[in-house]
Amino acid sequence: MTRRTAPRTILLAAGELLAWWAGLALLWLVLVTTVDTLERIVGASCAAVGAALARAGRRAVSWR
Description:
Radius of gyration: 15 Å
Number of helices: 2
Strand content: under 5%
């Protein structure tokens, strides 16, 4: 038996990840001095990893 996730739950999770990513990417842009293509890729990737970890940590603490 497979368990389906509600579309609303998926959208909320995606929205939370996007919000975390945007915040972390903005923080990175504030802290970095020069921006070239490789640094943009690395910054976006690190922000994505940070967003996933932040969401996982928030879910672990809130027990949802």
